[in-house]
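Sequence, please.
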């Protein structure tokens, strides 16, 4: 009995390995450091479509995102509704760590998947086509369209001609050095399009549609395809971050010309590009009582009328969601919900709300992530009054961390009505989020199951250096499938790492980082499919040890202290910092963290 009490002393984390149906990895210690398990995934809301359900020979929802084994991969995925299986393919490895570079997809008329992606102000549009219809198992060669500073590729099929595809995107001409500007301004961001009459194999020269006011960073846009027009909503952003973002504006593209909502003519091709003053104002940020605004999503109702969901900013700590709908005569604009504070932990992008997505098959339904303190919950909103009143339902009843950036798949099925990300969000290039919205059998399980792409977000800055001044112990029961590549089982603040080959050497390794040194202890006799209990221990003075199955196999001198990252340090399981790469391949259970050195007797007890 005394031994059991001793084993619980100083326990700061105990992850048995069990995964709940909603992907939560419960911490059985009193600290409650629960984690989010899932496929590592990231995306921004301006690159669409991100998910499309197609029913042909098979019923599948196709999804694309930034993630994969490296966390920086362009990934195409498919959820098969009949077999309840989820398959993925890396299309472009280690492309970017910036979530603004997520891909978009559209299905060709022959059923093959056409995928687009671009850097965040990158030098080219990239695209590829799947080798087989209704399959993401393999893709053809990547093609490039040279650009200057391109972001947000949005493919849309023409409502006038089903053989024609449009590709809308933002590009800019560099006019200054980004280091001269607080928010990284490099030149005015314009909206362009290209056309394809061979289902996306070749593309026309670009046409510029809109320009922002001179010196403004971007004219952000979201398109929605109707039966006879493509509808656009815009926001004029002076800069990123919390800089002014003006208005929600509108124009529709029909038969090669642009019109406002009541059909009044705006521009023909020879008149382009349109300026801000040409666009119809839906929400005026300069009006008395109004605020800065940022567009999120758009749709078209059964009568062909456009709908928009967007955020406004009474303050950076009190965002508001709004919903506007054209009723045939006027814009009906209504409050949707109080959205809470910005979601980014690094206080740069203070206008990053949790996010909105409209159900395009039923625009009276909107999914939104609402921030309440450190939590951000996904909710389903529905109106029967055109947006005047709303009923709401909490989708994630037991969430831990932050739910954000929902997306309703085009032609969504009942079993996958919405997808979203959950986890911890520091900044655009340091998010540790996992995919949510697939049926629960993709998440539930008795062990921590690593396959290189799945990881566990444990949050940021769980503990500081002083917590481990008297020592540290990290223990786990593991059974690796592959021991030939670097893998991280546990990453605590970027300073404490347990894994395989993490320093480039073969074997199980435990590593601590101090202010002037990093020390590692190793056991080289690890083999695939062989289970072992592993424990790394530092005594708080100068002795670092590694124990395998209760017996010390290596030791080194480490004088300490442990030095964590100082700015939102990353805590993860099954992958490295921020879920970027070095994914563990195998199973693990009984992962423990102590703020003291375990004794030899305690290590043997845990190993039994």
């Amino acid at each position: 009995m005394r031994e059991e009490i001793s084993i619980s002393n100083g326990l700061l984390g105990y992850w048995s390995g069990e995964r709940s149906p909603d992907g939560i990895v419960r911490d059985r210690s009193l600290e409650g450091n629960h984690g989010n398990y899932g496929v590592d995934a990231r995306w921004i809301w301006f690159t669409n479509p991100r998910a499309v359900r197609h029913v042909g020979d098979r019923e599948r929802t196709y999804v694309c995102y930034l993630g994969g084994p490296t966390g920086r991969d362009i990934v195409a995925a498919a959820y098969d509704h009949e077999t309840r299986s989820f398959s993925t393919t890396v299309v472009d490895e280690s492309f970017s760590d910036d979530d603004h570079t997520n891909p978009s997809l559209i299905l060709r008329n022959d059923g093959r998947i056409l995928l687009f992606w671009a850097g965040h102000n990158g030098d080219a549009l990239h695209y590829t086509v799947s080798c087989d219809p209704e399959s993401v198992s393999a893709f053809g060669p990547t093609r490039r369209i040279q650009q200057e500073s391109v972001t947000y590729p949005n493919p849309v099929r023409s409502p006038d001609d089903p053989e024609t595809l449009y590709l809308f995107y933002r590009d800019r001409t560099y006019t200054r050095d980004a280091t001269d500007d607080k928010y990284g301004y490099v030149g005015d961001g314009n909206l362009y399009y290209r056309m394809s009459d061979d289902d996306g194999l070749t593309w026309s020269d670009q046409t510029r549609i809109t320009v922002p006011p001179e010196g403004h960073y971007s004219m952000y846009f979201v398109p929605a395809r109707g039966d006879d027009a493509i509808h656009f909503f815009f926001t004029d952003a002076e800069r990123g971050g919390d800089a002014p973002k003006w208005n929600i504006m509108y124009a529709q593209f029909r038969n090669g010309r642009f019109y406002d909502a009541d059909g009044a003519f705006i521009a023909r091709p020879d008149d382009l590009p349109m300026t801000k003053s040409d666009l119809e104002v839906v929400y005026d940020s300069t009006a008395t009582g109004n605020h800065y605004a940022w567009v999120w999503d758009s749709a078209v109702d059964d009568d062909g009328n456009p709908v928009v969901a967007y955020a406004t900013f009474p303050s950076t700590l009190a965002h508001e969601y709004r919903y506007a709908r054209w009723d045939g005569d006027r814009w009906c604009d209504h409050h949707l919900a109080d959205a809470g504070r910005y979601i980014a932990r690094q206080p740069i992008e203070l206008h990053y709300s949790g996010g909105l997505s409209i159900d395009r098959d039923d625009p009276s339904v909107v999914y939104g992530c609402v921030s309440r303190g450190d939590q951000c919950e996904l909710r389903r909103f529905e109106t029967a009054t055109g947006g005047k009143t709303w009923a709401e339902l909490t989708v994630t009843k037991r969430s831990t961390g932050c739910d954000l950036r929902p997306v309703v798949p085009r032609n969504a099925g009942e079993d996958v009505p919405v997808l979203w990300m959950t986890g911890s969000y520091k900044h655009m290039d340091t998010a540790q989020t996992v995919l949510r919205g697939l049926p629960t059998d993709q998440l539930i399980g008795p062990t921590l199951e690593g396959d290189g792409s799945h990881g566990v977000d444990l949050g940021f800055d769980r503990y500081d250096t002083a917590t481990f001044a008297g020592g540290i112990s990290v223990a786990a029961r593991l059974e690796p499938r592959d021991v030939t590549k670097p893998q991280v089982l546990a990453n605590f603040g970027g300073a404490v790492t347990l894994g395989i080959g993490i320093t480039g050497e073969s074997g199980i390794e435990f590593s601590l980082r101090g202010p002037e040194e990093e020390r590692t202890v190793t056991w080289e006799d690890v083999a695939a499919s062989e289970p072992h209990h592993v424990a790394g221990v530092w005594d708080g003075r100068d002795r670092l040890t590694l124990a395998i199955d209760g017996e010390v196999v290596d030791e080194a001198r480490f004088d300490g202290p442990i030095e964590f990252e100082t700015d939102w340090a990353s805590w993860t399981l099954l992958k490295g910092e921020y879920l970027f790469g070095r994914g563990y391949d195998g199973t693990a259970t009984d992962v423990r963290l102590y703020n003291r050195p375990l004794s030899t007797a305690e290590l043997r007890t845990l190993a039994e």
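The two ends are 16 Å apart (CA to CA).
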